[in-house]
Amino acid sequence: MQTRTLKTAKVKVTTKCNRHCDFCIFADGGQGVNMPLATFETVLDRLNRIPFQQLHINGGEPTVHRDFAQLSNLARERFPDHAMVLGTNAVTLARNTRLLDATLTYYDQVLIGCDDEHGNYDEVVATVPVLRAAGKTVVVNSVLEAVDEAQLTRLAEMCQEHGAIHVTNHVHHIDVGQPANALGGLCDRYLDQHLMIEVDGSCYRCFNAMARYDSEFSVWDDDFAERVFAPRTSHYRFCLKCHEYRDSGQQILPAPAVPARTTIAV
Description:
Blueprint: E1 6-12, H1 37-47, E2 52-58, H2 68-78, E3 83-88, H3 91-95, H4 97-106, E4 109-113, H5 121-133, E5 137-143, H6 149-162, E6 165-169, E7 194-197, E8 202-204, E9 217-218, H7 224-228
Parallel strand pairs: 1-2, 1-7, 2-3, 3-4, 4-5, 5-6
Antiparallel strand pairs: 7-8, 8-9
Helix pairs in contact: 1-2, 2-4, 5-6
């Protein structure tokens, strides 16, 4: 039987952030909380039970986590053959050599949000050439509703010069007045098999999870590995307002295709 493979495990290691973007519901500024290292180690233990391709460390702003370098090292040691991805605004990377060195040491890809809301144009322009010189894949993402036209051109030219990727998108978080989707079946994006793990260990089988109270299960569950690949039969509450929702028309996604347990030795 062909086994399914989780494409991305996205771990939100903090809700702290050094920016206050109006469109972001994932960060609580300086009042946020960090995932304890013990919880992060549990996350790694649970992920070690399932096949997956890449580990995406995100937040909040993950580089403001007081143990960012240590947790990055733990993840790389546990999964040396997996792609390591960092989601960041690059502000601390431009200002803190230790954090930049940790990023260069442990991560393969760096995804950077950059626009007027982030207010980080200079930091991104300073950081991207360093990341690219080290051979890192870099994607700079700008929200079109919140970007200065001259800065957009600046970013595009900088990315072209250094071989980074520049993408733009529209705001899609549920608290910015998105019209309701006409929900029928479940979202066909679930076929891509993403998992998002919150600071408290709660889990969503959606890369763009946009609610705090829709968790299906958690890393603390003994049957975590089975639940990751179990069929889904209901929507999340945030599906109704998700800008990226794509209706598959199916009521159950997907059919399970993994053995009762897949164990990868440490």
